[in-house]
Design a protein that fits this description.
Layout lengths: L2 H10 L3 E7 L3 H10 L2 E2 L17 H13 L6 H8 L3 H23 L8 H8 L11 H22 L15 H10 L9 E7 L8 H6 L13 H11 L9 E8 L2 H16 L9 E8 L6 H9 L1 H11 L17 H29 L2 E6 L1 E6 L12 H10 L12 E5 L2 E5 H11 L13 H15 L7 E9 L5 E19 L19 E7 L9 H4 L2 E11 L7 E3 L2 E3 L2 H6 L9 E6 L10 E6 L6
Parallel strand pairs: 1-3, 1-4, 2-3, 4-5
Antiparallel strand pairs: 6-17, 7-8, 7-16, 9-11, 9-14, 10-11, 10-13, 11-12, 12-13, 13-16, 14-15
Helix pairs in contact: 3-5, 5-7, 12-13, 13-14
């Protein structure tokens, strides 16, 4: 087996799972506390290995007893002495055993550097020439037995009677521990280690000066808090990878659509601006868990994957973290009642970690979600009228390619996987943001936030804050075969009350046709305003369309906001920082995102238990 094959095998057994979470989300904090998922320390190099600090004291004690018991017999009296040791000393023993293994490995390779001086060596061996360069397996085994015997002999000398600080408190039932040692059962670490990567869901667009400084030729998606740690994690995981093999990196997105979109922006930025082929060295597997949040992808998967619905969606999207429990009645349950309160927290952790690890181990199918790109302009770029010429239209029917009427460089680029909305909902979200309230249309109608949103919406309507802007629109329609059939360019300016482009179904959306995220088109729903309903328009008669490209430009100097995956743009901070952004956008182009010049569609892969076919 060559080195590359070893690297591939090692990569497939990678044990770290990173949970992508919102830092300010209370549900994510509670879930991390229940499952004891600690925050990643920021040192991402070689993170496919365990640290002893990440192993619980109970697991560490079992591993030490099991390791020593393989070579030297450990009696019940030895166990009693071991359980009276302090937690710090147990961790010190584990570090000593680990360091011994490292030293033996270096001695076997002949690379061990002893700190002893030449004088010390001559005193022990008579001459430096008499020291063997390589240690034999027999000599290594002898040294290991001496180390284990010395460690075991120290237990009786250092044991203490204080049960509050000793390891004994982690083993309420010592009979089970006796049985494990007597039968010499094989013990091992769990195959997965969970680490949290909690960040704030902030967005920041690079200015033109910042782009020049970083030598970026294209406009990139907004920078999020996940950009830097995600790149560091990938860099650390690819250091031990062979040239021809990829290392597996498992990321679990825990939260709602806002977390998904924030991560998506970082993911797209890394892949599209990757000048060192870093992303080609890693195989990223993405898992989605809706921890008490509205997650459109999780909801879509749950509709079509019954195993995901039962084992992931139902327990994690519940308003409360619940632990299934079977209470035994009569004499059969008398022994369990005293242990309920003591083991409840442990069982809660084991239950939810069991669900997550079951999802990670057995979700081997991939849902390939198409990612779409919204190019936004604060100005009104020139409109290329040649895009609607006879030659261009003829090329559509023959080749199936569309021409672009807007080709200028955008001000902002925002990828999305779920939906994009212009009109009433976007302006309402903007109004609520100015009042300090987050716009969440799918929240619980009986919650305090829903009641506050309802009052603000009534005020929004009463004060007539929403004034539809007139726009010029051009769309490329797609047939059920996935090819462009024609281009519709509305020559007259039309005011829209609502304009929605959907890639994933939404629970609150009952107007647009249910989309499929694997289809190469978006489902568009257009509702014209009452001021434009009298105008003859195809979209007024046929508001539902399959489109693969949209180009929209305002009539005058009006501006509009957009909701992208439930996130409002432009942000208030962007409007105040930028000299050109003002209060909104004047032009938008929506098209399918591609990875490079070859035109390969950009895919956002999500793992599922069963293949989803619609």
């Amino acid at each position: 087996m060559d080195r590359n094959q070893k690297s591939a095998k090692f990569a497939e057994s990678e044990s770290i799972v990173y949970h992508i979470m919102d830092e300010v989300c209370s549900a994510s904090k509670v879930f991390s506390h229940i499952c004891e998922i600690k925050q990643e320390d920021g040192k991402y190099n070689h993170r496919n290995r365990y640290k002893t600090s990440e192993i619980s004291t109970r697991a560490l004690a079992l591993l030490i007893l099991h390791t020593i018991n393989r070579d030297i017999e450990v009696t019940r009296k030895d166990i009693d002495n071991f359980l009276n040791l302090s937690e710090d000393y147990v961790r010190k023993i584990s570090e000593e055993i680990l360091q011994f293994g490292r030293d033996m490995y270096k001695k076997a390779l002949g690379t061990f550097e002893d700190k002893e001086t030449d004088g010390d060596i001559k005193e022990k061996h008579g001459s430096t020439k008499n020291i063997p360069k390589l240690i034999t397996p027999q000599e290594g085994a002898t040294l290991r037995l001496k180390l284990y015997q010395r460690i075991k002999n120290s237990w009786s000398k250092l044991s203490q009677q204080d049960s509050n600080t000793s390891v004994k408190r982690f083993f309420p039932d010592t009979d089970d521990l006796y049985n494990i040692v007597d039968t010499k059962k094989m013990l091992s670490l769990p195959s997965l280690c969970h680490k949290a990567l909690r960040q704030k869901l902030n967005y920041e667009f690079l200015t033109e000066e910042q782009r020049k400084f970083s030598m970026e030729t294209e406009v990139l998606p907004p920078q999020t808090e996940f950009n830097v740690p995600l790149r560091s994690i990938i860099t650390g995981h690819t250091k031990e990878t062979g040239k021809k093999n990829k290392t597996v990196l498992r990321l679990m997105l825990s939260g709602g659509d806002e977390v998904m979109h924030s991560f998506l922006c970082a993911y797209v930025t890394l892949k599209t601006s990757d000048k060192t082929d870093l992303m080609k060295k890693v195989d990223i597997k993405i898992y989605v868990t809706p921890v008490k949040a509205e997650n459109s992808i999780a909801c879509f998967i749950a509709r079509h994957d019954s195993w995901y619905y039962r084992n992931v969606y139902t327990p994690l999207s519940n308003d409360l973290f619940l632990l299934p429990w079977v209470r035994l009645h009569g004499n059969a349950g008398s022994g369990m009642r005293g242990m309920e309160s003591q083991l409840h927290g442990t069982r809660m952790k084991e239950y939810y970690l069991g669900l997550l690890e079951n999802y990670i181990r057995h979700a081997n199918c991939t849902l390939k979600i198409n990612v779409w790109n919204a190019k936004l302009y604060v100005s009104k770029p020139d409109w290329d009228h040649k895009a609607d010429s006879k030659e261009a239209l003829k090329r559509i029917t023959i080749v199936g390619e569309t021409s672009s009427a807007i080709n200028a460089e955008p001000t902002h680029v925002i990828p999305f996987f779920h939906r994009l909305e212009i009109g009433y909902a976007a302006e309402l979200a903007k109004y609520m943001a100015s009042e300090g309230v987050s716009y969440k249309p799918n929240c619980d109608p009986d919650s305090r936030g829903a009641l506050e949103m309802k009052k603000l919406e009534e005020k929004f309507i009463r004060e007539k804050k929403f004034q539809p802007v007139e726009v010029q629109i051009r769309i490329a329609r797609v047939g059920l075969g996935g090819k462009v059939i024609d281009v519709i360019h509305e020559q007259k300016y039309i005011a829209f009350h609502t304009l929605v482009l959907s890639n994933v179904p939404s629970t609150a959306d009952n107007k647009s046709f249910p989309p499929n995220p694997e289809d190469p088109w978006l489902e568009m729903y257009a509702r014209t305003a009452s001021s434009s309903s009298a105008k003859k328009s195809l979209l007024d008669k046929e508001p539902h369309q399959h489109v693969c490209r949209l180009e929209l430009r305002v009539k005058n100097d009006d501006q509009f906001s957009v909701l992208v995956d439930g996130v409002l743009f432009p942000k208030k901070s962007e409007s105040t920082k930028s000299k050109t952004s003002g209060l909104g956008y004047r032009t938008i182009v929506v098209e399918r995102l591609v990875e490079d010049d070859t035109g390969v569609p950009f895919i956002f892969p999500v793992q599922t238990f069963y293949p989803i076919t619609i």
